[in-house]
Design a protein that fits this description.
Radius of gyration: 19 Å
Structural class: mainly alpha
Distance between the termini: 34 Å
Strand order of the largest sheet: 1-3-2
Order of helices and strands: HEHHEEHHHHHH
Keywords: DNA-binding, Transcription, Transcription regulation
Pfam families: FCD (PF07729), GntR (PF00392)
CATH class of the largest domain: Mainly Alpha
Protein name: GntR family transcriptional regulator
Number of strands: 3
Helix content: 55-70%
Largest sheet: 3 strands, antiparallel
CATH superfamily of the largest domain: GntR ligand-binding domain-like
CATH architecture of the largest domain: Up-down Bundle
InterPro entries: GntR_C (IPR011711), TF_FadR/GntR_C (IPR008920), Tscrpt_reg_HTH_GntR (IPR000524), WH-like_DNA-bd_sf (IPR036388), WH_DNA-bd_sf (IPR036390)
Strand content: under 5%
CATH topology of the largest domain: Four Helix Bundle (Hemerythrin (Met), subunit A)
């Protein structure tokens, strides 16, 4: 008889979790396990199992799951409850079209308010991307670069929506970048974005971002199309 493996067995809890920290600790633990693949797509996440693992009530568990659902890492399915969301949905093109609108607005609002520390952070992420050989880290560095340019946008709800799209892209790149034969992400776009942001050339910077995201849409669309053609079900 096969032994059923507990999907949460990869998550380690090193000490009792304080009540006031429970939600954030559970959220961060699950997020890390989803992003690094320990909790694969489609894995069901049971509230009672999480509550037992962390030694807490179900209330902070429910709050953590709601946060992760809002970030696009979990989704609720009928009869199954919360499950780890797919790396990229069939509606990915619609998601990118929405990202174009949201990120363009975030950049437009943020650029005039960026300071030298923001520019230094963005430049450091570009440098790190140029030398990073661990493809699992490239998506994270890409997300951090974009967040460095968007972070001064005063509309926090807008930033929250932008971050959902960036996390979705990070997960997709983490597991598919090598198969897409892209190697490290092209840095020309990032360097141009940073140069234009430094010069406070807001409209030109937004235009460059739109071109950058359109190129990403084209690459992902082509990759997904090839995957469908090569699928044994086709």
């Amino acid at each position: 008889m096969a032994v059923k493996i507990n999907p949460l067995s990869s998550i380690e809890v090193h000490a009792p979790v304080a009540a006031h920290q429970a939600r954030s600790v559970i959220e961060e633990s699950l997020r890390n396990a989803i992003l690094d693949g320990r909790l694969p797509c489609g894995t069901a996440i049971r509230q009672e199992a999480l509550a037992t693992l962390f030694g807490v009530s179900r209330m902070p568990v429910r709050e953590a799951l709601r946060q992760l659902e809002a970030q696009g890492l979990l989704r609720v399915e009928h009869y199954k409850g919360a499950v780890v969301a797919p790396l990229i949905e069939d509606s990915s093109l619609e998601s990118y079209q929405l990202r174009l609108l949201l990120e363009s607005e975030a950049l437009r609002l943020s650029v005039p308010l960026l300071d030298e520390q923001d520019f230094a952070d963005a430049a450091a992420y570009i440098q790190a991307l140029e030398v990073e050989t661990d493809l699992s880290k490239v998506g994270t560095l890409n997300r951090l670069f974009h967040q460095a340019l968007y972070n001064k946008a005063p509309n926090k709800k807008l930033l929250a929506l932008v971050n959902v799209g960036l996390v979705e892209e990070e997960r997709f790149l983490r597991f598919n970048l090598q198969q897409m034969n892209l190697g490290p992400l092209a840095q020309d776009d990032h360097r141009t974005l940073l140069q234009l942001a430094r010069g406070r050339e807001v409209q030109a910077c937004v235009k460059e971002l739109e071109l950058h995201l359109h190129r990403a849409v084209k690459a992902i669309t082509q990759y997904l199309g090839n995957q469908k053609q090569n699928s044994p079900d086709v």
